[in-house]
Amino acid sequence: MGALHFPLLLVAALLFSSSAALTAVEEAEIALRQKLAFENHHHPTDHVHIDINIDIKITNPSLLTAHKALQALKDALYSDPNNFTGNWVGPDVCAYNGVFCVPSLHNETESAVATLDMNSADVAGYLPKEIGLMRDLAVLHLNSNRFCGVIPEEIRNMTELYEFDASNNRFVGPFPAAVLGVPKLTYLDIRFNDFDGPIPPELFLKPYDAIFLNNNRFTSGIPETIGKSRATVIVLANNELGGCIPRSIGDAAATLDQFTFTNNSLTGCLPVEAGLLTNATVFDVSGNALTGAIPLTLAGLSRVEQLDLSRNMFTGDVPTDLCELPALANLSVSYNFLTREDVACSALDRNMNGSFNDEANCMGQSRLAQRSAGECTPVVSHPVDCIKVKSCGWPSVEPPPPPPAPVASPPPPPMSSPPPPPASPPPPVVSPPPPVFSPPPPAVSPPPPVFSPPPPVASPPPPIFSPPPPAASPPPPPPPVYSPPPPPPVIVPPVRGTKYQSPPPPLFPGY
């Protein structure tokens, strides 16, 4: 390998990490050291001296650039205990461990590297920026290694890449925005790393089929753009996300199959729009701080098999329809503050062979393993009304109260002479005004316009039951506007995407 000139601080940390399994505290300390070392945006391989044998003759330009990238990657490793890269020598790039070649998209008579699979190789080091030279690469699997540092910006140059798996490593820094510039990417897996900061809203605007961000240190909230995602799998579990689950989540109903937000710090009410996810088979929001009642709209999850609402602060009843979902195989509402459940829910213990869990609630003696009255009373006596909550509550479906009826003015006393015309009468409510200089309207019509001639002196005053409105009378109020209730869940045909394993093997050696 070439000589590596890493900062002494990082060398010490990295050598320690290769000698024994790390505790969570040690991993966090190493991640922090890396982040502080790279805060000036210097890539770790800026100091790497790469030894490439220029005597090797490779006439295929695609394989030549792949050779350069793979040699840079090999030289960026400081540990390879299984000698995974031991045969990464010589011009036959397609014979290297983990490398798979197929006919080039640009010239079928030449080969190109389409897949680099280093899953579970147990190598340690950095991902060099030369990786971006592999523009024919379609699948890049790096999971279950000890890569650290940052994802290089040059990855955006991999124009054929559609599957990127860097999970279960020690990458650090903010969300690797460079991957958002990879034009054909559809599968993104960066779980089990030390990425932090906010999730960029642009992520959910990309045509990804699967998004795995779980087990990092992402903070802030879930972007509203999540409703625009067309992914079948979205896993954000085990981060430090706060705020509310966006109501836009219901807009992802056409494609979303697995929805996992467990073990974050999400608050507020579970949006009623979640019931629109009619294609979801996995729905998991456990381990948060969600409040209020369980929405009745969850009865729309007609295909859900795994439903986990446990370890929140839900109050009220367990909706009966929830326990009667046709595809349900596992339901957990444990560790909440629920006070009642229907017999249909209790029957799930028998029908689902114990895969229903309602322990640690506030159902009293009717169920086993419930909370004490001392735990329940402070929460149950002050339930959150999701309709009245201003932030993260449910939309009100009640129409606004009608406006007050106008107060009728008393009729004027009889007069021997007609009343003077008003200076500026309001327009008639129903009938249009008569033309100028027309004779006076019948007694039951509103007063004539300003330029109408007055009635004769001997004419009787208008009847009491239809007095002209006084000049100061306010205009009639507009008709009340009623907000329609939200539309019922729309059942759309399922659009099934590929189900990926965790971590996934290469789908196939090539494109």
From TrEMBL:
Its main location: secreted. The keyword Membrane does not apply. It comes from Panicum virgatum (Blackwell switchgrass). This is Cell wall hydroxyproline-rich glycoprotein. Keywords: Cell wall, Cell wall biogenesis/degradation, Glycoprotein, Hydroxylation, Leucine-rich repeat, Repeat, Secreted, Signal. Residues 397-511 are annotated as: Disordered. It is found in: Secreted, Cell wall. InterPro entries: Leu-rich_rpt, LRR_dom_sf, LRR_extensin-like_regulator, LRR_N_plant-typ. One of its GO terms (biological process) is cell wall organization. Residues 397-492, 502-511 have a biased composition (Pro residues).
